[in-house]
Write a structure and sequence with these properties.
The complex is a heterodimer of chains A (107) and B (176). Chain A is mostly helical. In chain A, 61% of the residues lie in helices and 11% in strands. Chain A has 4 helices and 3 strands. The longest helix of chain B is centred in the C-terminal third of the chain and has 34 residues. Classes of the chains: A mainly alpha (107), B mainly alpha (176).
């Protein structure tokens, strides 16, 4: 697939949305937490990525349910979830191969 | 520090359609993040402001480039060599060395001026009279060094903030 591999920030954004829909601030904090503070996205970077993911229909905008402020939240589409699974599968395969090679070298 | 008003002004750098689509949301998220940094130290707040400022400017450039029909790419100039490698670290010793070198240059210029001043009193100066134009030139050189030193520091700070923002990594993604 030509869209793979994903960059780390995009992968983390998609992973953040994999569990539940989130609004912008929640995505930023979740990405920071998942990466142990290593990936700190600015709002400009985040919304650049969200725009692209929206355009490609990997995610969609929804009205946040439990918010009185009517904020916009984002959630994965079936296409986005499928592509995320493909990326995770690719990474698993790579990890398995790496482990095999390392193990054979050590043996 | 980067206020919401200033952030709103920076957002105007984005194309109108992008502002209409995400502008208010970005401001709301920025306000939440800014409120969170209030309790943090000055350094953390400065890094946050730099990261946000650089992120908005870089994002605006990317959106304009895309609006012109270009692909989603990071800036044209080869910042990858500076920012893309996760193992790369700007050596802190460089900043110290730059400061020492600048100090040495300033000291040398001052010594030179002191020597030229002391020679003015001599009966028959061996190197001829010192004209005012020399002092002007030395001052200009000094000013030039200070200017480029400051420009270098600002440039480094912007690149550092961009690198921390993670914006550079987006160019490696293709979502098609």
């Amino acid at each position: 697939m030509e869209f793979l591999p994903l960059t780390e920030p995009v992968l983390l954004i998609l992973l953040s949305l994999a569990g539940q829909p989130r609004h912008g601030y929640s995505i930023l904090k979740d990405v920071e937490q998942m990466s142990d503070g290593r990936v700190l996205l600015s709002t400009g970077t985040l919304y650049g990525a969200l725009r692209r993911l929206l355009d490609e229909e990997w995610i969609e905008r929804i009205k946040e349910q439990d918010s009185s402020r009517g904020r916009q939240a984002y959630r994965l589409t079936s296409r986005g979830r499928r592509n995320l699974q493909l990326e995770v599968g690719r990474m698993k395969q790579l990890t398995r191969l790496a482990n095999l090679r390392i193990a054979s070298k050590e043996a | 520090m980067l206020s919401i008003t200033l952030y709103r002004s920076l957002l105007r750098l984005n194309p109108a359609f992008h502002r209409e689509r995400f502008g208010e949301e970005m401001i709301a998220v920025f306000a939440e993040m800014q409120a969170e940094t209030v309790s943090k130290g000055t350094m953390a707040r400065a890094v946050f402001c730099l990261r946000e400022g650089a992120g908005v400017v870089a994002g605006a450039l990317q959106e304009h480039w895309r609006a012109l029909g270009g692909e989603d790419v990071w800036l044209w100039f080869p910042t990858r060599r500076f920012t893309m490698r996760t193992e790369f670290r700007f050596p802190k010793a460089t900043a110290v060395l730059m400061t020492i070198i600048l100090g040495g240059i300033i000291l040398a210029i001052q010594k030179g001026e002191a020597i030229s001043t002391s020679l003015r009193g001599a009966v028959s100066p061996p190197i001829g009279p010192i004209h005012p134009v020399h002092s002007v030139m030395v001052g200009g050189i000094l000013l030039g060094f200070v200017f480029f030193y400051a420009a270098g520091l600002i440039g480094w700070a912007i690149l550092f903030a961009m690198r921390r923002s993670g914006v550079h990594r987006l160019s490696e993604t293709s979502t098609k």
